[in-house]
Here is the input.
Amino acid sequence: WPGYKAHVQNIGTGTICLSTFQLFSSLLFRPLPSSFIMSGLTTGSTGMPELDAINLQFVERFNAGDFEGVAALYSADCRLMPQGMPVQIGREATKDFFAAVAAAGAKSLKVTIHEFGPVGADAEMYYERTEFEFFKEDGSTFEHGKYIVLWKKVDGHWYYYTDIMNSDIRR
Here is the structure.
């Protein structure tokens, strides 16, 4: 992610539990039943109100500059996998990454959820396919792209576990 790659320090390296083959072979793809506006900040739905609320909190916290709050939505063992960068591991690295995105010029965010479904049969993990758009202070587009996030339940609460993102903007 040019422009803010230099602002993010690699905290460590690691591997995700599911290989790409395992992930995509186990997904039970299903399109969202219907798209609706949750707020001016998020469009679409996971079909699970608890996860929709977390997505809205993510956007609201980013837009408020609360990067500690953004990182709290991720599991303690989370993996953030931005395009062109090493894997960022844990909440501290996640906080630093999103703070660096803001420092580079992204002042607000909007997301559009396109697809959501279980990974495997146990419903302890879900995937979400979403578009994002970061905006500059003047309202113009800073960054646009897409991501797939794996949701994981820990002690009865849902968290972002693995977040894989890439940009649609060529630099």
Q: What stands out?
A: The longest strand covers residues 141-154. Residues 49-63 form the longest helix (15 residues). The two ends are 9 Å apart (CA to CA). Confidence is low (pLDDT under 50) at residues 1-39.
